[in-house]
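Sequence in, structure out. Go.
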Amino acid sequence: MSIKFVQSTKDFNDFVKHNKYLVANFTASWCGPCQAIKPVLDQLYTDTNARYEKIEVIRVDLDTQRDLALKYKVASVPAFVFIENGQEVKRVNGANVPELIKSLDEMNQKAASDPSSKGRAGNGAVVEKLSDNVSFKGIDEFIPKGFEVLNGSIDYGGFEALNGVPLFKGTEGADVKNLFKLDYKKDTSTVVSDADSQLLFYIPLLNISKVYSVLLKFRTGESIAEAGSETELELDSDDLKDESQIPSLIKVWANHQGIISFDDAASDGNAPHIEKISQDANSVWYEIKLKFVRFQNVQSLTVFFDGEDEDYHTLLDKIVLVGVNGETKEQGKISKLEDD
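Output:
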């Protein structure tokens, strides 16, 4: 997992409460030294040998978390505040890598010999292992070490979907967004194209992220029809069996300002990622590995699907984004902290 940005003072306090040994990295998007030292700290945090497994690390944006910056009297960034039992015990100012590592080693030595230290605990929220949810069974093997599921960072307020409707329309809470939502535990998230074979999604993210892959889960219309359903469906049994299909094509774009038209999506032969989907895929999850260099600073994704037969309905059961969360999009330009 990557280092998290705190979202509020309460969020910060929860991290402090649940972690005896904590480092708060005060940073800003406009700060060159902050960006220079960021990958160093990221690598230390995700070290394969669990070098600092008993130290939690968080990031605090100087611009959006002004109250915290004032509380800790942070006037310049980067700043690394070392907190033990809720109290600041040390601070490293500037992008001083040797001093940062030395200070981490000192805290780590103390934490390692402390029987009461239980290691990283995040902000104390109970997080269910994703694969424990039947809808996400078998997904773990598609999430490489150092990467994470990004669906929790989707800005559903700006989300848009064209030509897609919930297949299980009689289910309480039926919504196209359930195709992406991690906390939707019913096995009824399937979306079906309405008028023809095409589906189009605009997926804004809360954080500027690196996107590694798109995972797709399919359910054929025939399997759904044979299993039967206790809820009202968008398609009848015959249409599910005879006139539905899984997607045969996916196109992905980064950082459009809003959703594009179907004509533009279908005709664009130079999309950053274009891939044909194998129709005989037997895996529960189908992995679309993106051209990673083209999806490094992603604020939104536009994803287009089409089926082999333009007159058939296209079905999708789940879409999962995998990558690395980065800075919050709310970070502003240079700001100066002033005493109240």
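Check: Residues 33 and 95 are 6 Å apart (CA to CA). Residues 130-324 form a domain with the Jelly Rolls fold (CATH 2.60.120.470).
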